[in-house]
Design goal:
Oligomer: single chain
Keywords: Lipid biosynthesis, Lipid metabolism, Membrane, Nucleotidyltransferase, Phospholipid biosynthesis, Phospholipid metabolism, Receptor, Transferase, Transmembrane, Transmembrane helix
Number of helices: 16
Strand order of the largest sheet: 1-2
Distance between the termini: 107 Å
EC number: 2.7.7.41
GO molecular function, one term: phosphatidate cytidylyltransferase activity
Strand content: 5-15%
Radius of gyration: 27 Å
Membrane topology: Multi-pass membrane protein
Order of helices and strands: HHHHHHHHHEEHHEEEEHHHHH
InterPro entries: PC_trans, PC_Trfase_euk
Length: 431
């Protein structure tokens, strides 16, 4: 009898161990009680006003109210100009990073290792120093070269950035604790993936802003429009599920949001093309000694006449002209709107999959009715990358300001040599 009891106890040990391993596996983490949610959250006053409504309509009203607040805030930031936009981008970036890192801490539950939280923020500061410094060098090199100290920082910017990163790398290795090796390396990887998603994308957003506010405002507003209209069409007409990762997403919402985004994109692009404030790139004027957004709009933002395809000629009998006058940027906005309505939502699906992996509803509770900052900007990061790739592939050409900034880093004799070569070239072409 005692022998049988021992055998049962010995058989139970691996089962108990397996269960504990199963519960502790990253695939089965349940963080629903660790991460606050904001989807069902609303201010007490609004809760009292809406207490008689069904949950579905209550949630709809809360989302609508705070969507209007966010749109109003977005308009005020645009009115504040490029500096306000860049500061807002930085704040959003930091908050998104915080939400992702907090999930990492909740997943791996490292106790007694205070340095790792500090390390995560150190890597964020180091990454921002590198990427934002790259932007300053590209767009304000002419101004920076006037100050000896700044010139030194610019000349060795990448070396300084690398040294800062190496400092963090050494700090991480020295902070390793024997029984936490796997969790520490997992969080190290988690931090770097968060940096890749958040910091790199915000860097591209800043680059888009410098190309002209229109390259930031139009894509961002397209994502907002698509998100709102997909929700509206899905709320009122949604019947057919779209994807299992997001059970509430429907084909009706996806198609309705896409069509609305294309129409909205054309209208807002046509409106903004008429104002130099939105279309002029942000540059440093050496003659004025300050940053300026005054320019002669490029051909991209001037009306151009296009001939309609030959099969439209039959419409001439009813008075439809054979040519169409439109801003070229409006045609480019079609590409942006198609991407934002077809591919953009997959940024949200990706975030939904991430949240489902850890059984959480939202990334945070900052925005009532919506969730965390990351819940609202998951599609924006993917859109920012596409816009930057689109600009560099189909639009951008090297500007004299950027070329001059590079020339100023040459030694004086090299600058003189370049001047003589350019002078000879111009004379040979009778210019």
């Amino acid at each position: 009898m005692s022998e049988l009891r021992k055998r049962k106890e010995s058989d139970a040990i691996p089962v108990e161990s397996a269960e504990s391993d199963h519960i502790d596996s990253e695939d089965d983490k349940d963080l629903s009680h660790s991460i606050p949610t904001g989807t069902d959250k609303a201010p007490s006053t609004l809760e009292w006003v809406l207490q008689g409504l069904p949950d579905k309509w209550r949630n709809w009203v809360v989302r609508f109210v705070f969507s209007m607040i966010m749109i109003t805030f977005f308009g005020l930031v645009i009115y504040g100009g490029p500096l306000a936009l860049m500061i807002t981008t930085l704040v959003v970036q930091v908050k998104c990073f915080q939400e992702i890192i907090n999930i990492g801490y909740a997943v791996y539950r490292i106790h007694g290792l205070p340095w790792f939280r500090s390390l995560s923020w150190y890597f964020l500061v180091t990454s921002n120093y590198f990427f934002y410094g790259e932007n300053l060098v590209d767009y304000f090199g002419v101004a920076i070269n006037r100050t000896d100290l700044l010139r030194w920082l610019v000349t060795y910017h990448r070396f300084i950035s690398f040294c800062l990163y190496c400092g963090g790398f050494v700090w991480f290795v020295l902070s390793l604790v024997k029984k936490y090796y796997m969790k520490q390396f997992s969080l190290f990887a988690w931090t770097h993936v968060a940096l890749l998603i958040v910091v790199t994308q915000s860097y591209l957003i800043i680059k888009n802003i410098f190309e002209g506010l229109i390259w930031f405002i139009v894509p961002v507003s397209m994502i907002i429009c698509n998100d709102i209209m997909a929700y509206v069409f899905g709320f009122f007409f949604g019947r057919t599920p779209l994807i299992k990762l997001s059970p509430k997403k429907t084909w009706e919402g996806f198609i309705g949001g896409g069509f609305s985004t294309v129409v909205f994109g054309c209208l807002v692009s046509y409106f903004m093309c008429q104002f130099p404030y939105f279309v002029c790139p942000i540059e440093y004027s050496e003659s004025l000694g300050r940053i300026t957004m005054d320019c002669e709009p490029s051909a991209l933002f001037k009306p151009a006449e296009y001939s309609l395809p030959s099969y439209f000629s039959v419409l001439s009998v009813i008075g439809v002209p054979s040519t169409l006058t439109i801003y070229p940027f409006v045609l480019h906005s079609l590409s942006l709107s198609v991407f934002s309505s077809v591919i953009g939502p997959f940024g949200g699906f990706f975030a939904s999959g991430f949240k489902r992996a850890f059984k959480i509803k939202d990334f945070g509770d900052v925005i009532p009715g919506h969730g965390g900052i990351m819940d609202r900007f998951d599609c924006q990061f993917l859109m920012a990358t596409f816009v930057n790739v689109y600009i560099t592939s189909f639009i951008q050409t090297d500007s004299p300001q950027k070329l001059l900034a590079q020339v100023l880093y040459l030694k004086p004799e090299q600058q003189l040599q370049l001047f003589n070569l350019l002078k000879d070239s111009l004379e040979n072409r009778s210019i």
